[in-house]
Specification:
Layout: H1 6-11, H2 24-27, E1 34-39, H3 48-55, H4 57-71, E2 75-81, H5 85-94, E3 99-104, E4 107-108, H6 113-121, E5 136-140, H7 141-149, E6 157-164, E7 170-175, H8 180-186, E8 195-199, E9 206-208, E10 221-226, H9 230-236, H10 239-249, H11 255-258, H12 261-264, H13 271-275, H14 285-288, H15 299-304, H16 311-324, E11 348-349, H17 350-356, E12 368-372, E13 377-381, E14 391-392, E15 399-400, E16 405-408, E17 411-412, E18 415-416, E19 422-423, E20 428-434, E21 437-441
Parallel strand pairs: 1-2, 1-5, 2-3, 6-10, 7-12
Antiparallel strand pairs: 4-11, 6-7, 8-9, 8-10, 13-21, 14-16, 15-20, 16-19, 17-18, 20-21
Helix pairs in contact: 4-7
The structure holds iron/sulfur cluster (2 copies).
Length: about 450
């Protein structure tokens, strides 16, 4: 009998806490020989995985072992930056023999699961594949902790780093459903007048205009930047500008491709070819079909391109268009020129990336705050995961306790749709159900 049942993981509402939000019970229903814990955390200035490991190492190890039992894996590994020597020493004292530490260089990208699986296990996930195709389940540190806790309590709390232009960069433990603004205030507030919030990180996150947007089970961090910061300006460029400038300034140097981590793995994506879709002479399907395999890491746009063009957005625009039109490259081959041996040397060293992004001025720390952030009102989003949005399981005016189910995935074709239940994160009364969220207030 596994120490944690799959049903408990489902009922606790555990989903990928590293940003994707894939329902964990669905992932653990497969079979794999290895469970790989993703503690690589390569987004500049974010620290929550390292802090969770430091503070809750026993729970993370227990969740890893539980995950291994569920998928039948005999091997576990924790991929973590080699620079975090204190945490690695701590792990050395806690890990069973079946789980190893895999130290990683301080470079970007390291946390993309395709790259992590290759770096740690030497396995290449095929284009359009998932780690399970190479016998691997990848989980975030916090997801492993939530698995360990699943039998006793559902997911009602979230860890996230608040960094950048704030008075006290910090990693917070907050009730699910507080606002980003509350988190930034808990970090001492912005130190710039016109603060902009990048949610999920500078490289792969998004610019959130609504500072009262809600923290959900996937929110990993907020980086606060001033309006005139280069990263904010790049995010605010509209598509027309990107096309106009890209069309006239791309000289097809192909640096974007030479440093693209997916191309280096042998996947058929070549962003410099996608740039030709902006009406160069060589427009054609072959130039854009490979964009389906872009992981949107942003390295090409924010680091590789010497002209500061935006091949990442060109790739994502094409990728979405292909998806809308239902066109996919069936059985895409690995690039026969497969330059994967260069992968390690072509990653962006973190110090250089921080300098290039204008982030070197910020304090690169994020110690864990001890106490749970207090909250009088929370909004529990009904969709915090990949799959179907939950249906409310409560009504306005109903008293609820922290941990009580307030939404469940709908039943489709006689069984629950892919998803995860959501739970009240504070004691209180359901004030309203609106805007895709159940709002709970303390009386
Ligand atoms: S790196 Fe920039 S200039 Fe060079 S091919 Fe790519 S988009 Fe064009
Ligand atoms: S964002 Fe750019 S570098 Fe990253 S996978 Fe896509 S094309 Fe490659």
């Amino acid at each position: 009998m596994p120490r944690v049942a799959l049903e408990a993981v489902q009922e606790a509402g555990v989903v990928g806490a590293g940003g994707a939000g894939f329902p964990t019970q669905a992932k653990l229903a497969g079979a794999a020989d290895t469970v790989l814990i993703n503690a690589a955390e390569c987004e500049p200035l974010l620290h929550k995985d390292k802090e969770v490991l430091r503070e809750y190492v026993d729970g993370v190890v227990e969740g890893t072992v539980a995950g291994m039992e569920l998928v039948g894996a005999r091997r576990g590994a924790i991929g973590i930056k080699e620079k975090y020597t204190a945490v690695i020493d701590l792990l050395g004292k806690k890990l069973p023999r079946s789980i190893e530490v895999a130290p990683l260089r301080d470079a970007y990208p390291a946390g993309d699961e395709f790259i992590l699986v290759y770096d740690v296990l030497g396995r290449v996930i095929p284009p359009a594949g998932i780690p399970l195709h190479v016998g691997t389940v990848v989980m975030n540190v916090e997801t492993a902790l939530n698995i360990a806790r699943a039998t006793a309590r559902p997911v009602t709390e979230k860890f996230l780093s608040v960094a950048g232009a704030v008075a006290q960069p910090v990693t917070l433990r907050v009730p699910v459903g507080v606002t980003l603004r509350q988190c930034v205030e808990a970090a001492g507030g912005p130190t710039v007048p016109d603060a902009h919030y990048l949610v999920g990180g500078v490289m792969m996150g998004w610019l959130e205009e609504d500072h009262d947007a809600l923290v959900d089970k996937t929110t990993g961090g907020v980086v606060v930047l001033p309006a005139d910061h280069v990263v904010v300006r790049r995010r605010r460029q509209d598509w027309g500008q990107i096309v106009r400038i890209g069309r006239s300034a791309c000289d097809q140097c192909s640096f974007c491709t030479e440093l693209c981590p997916r191309w280096l793995l042998g996947h058929p994506i070549e962003p410099h070819l996608a740039m030709r879709s902006l009406e160069f002479n060589l427009v054609g399907e072959a130039n854009v079909i490979g964009t389906a395999f872009c992981c949107e890491c942003n390295l090409c746009s924010l680091y590789s391109c010497p002209e500061d063009l935006d091949p990442k957005n060109v790739c994502t625009q094409n990728k979405r268009r292909l998806a809308r039109e239902g066109r996919r490259w069936s059985d895409p081959p690995l690039n026969p020129r497969r330059p994967e041996l260069h992968l390690e040397n072509r990653k962006a060293p973190m110090a250089r990336l921080m300098y290039k992004l204008g982030l070197a001025q910020f304090r690169n720390v994020g110690p864990l705050a001890e106490n749970l952030l207090p909250a009088e009102r929370v909004g529990i989003k009904l969709k915090q995961h990949i799959g179907a949005a939950c249906e409310p399981a409560v009504e306005a005016g109903q008293p609820v306790r922290a941990g009580e189910v307030v939404g469940r995935p709908p039943v489709q074709n006689g069984k629950p749709a892919l998803g995860a239940p959501v739970h009240a994160s504070i004691d209180g009364v359901v004030a309203e159900i609106t805007g895709g969220a159940v709002w709970i207030e303390r009386p």
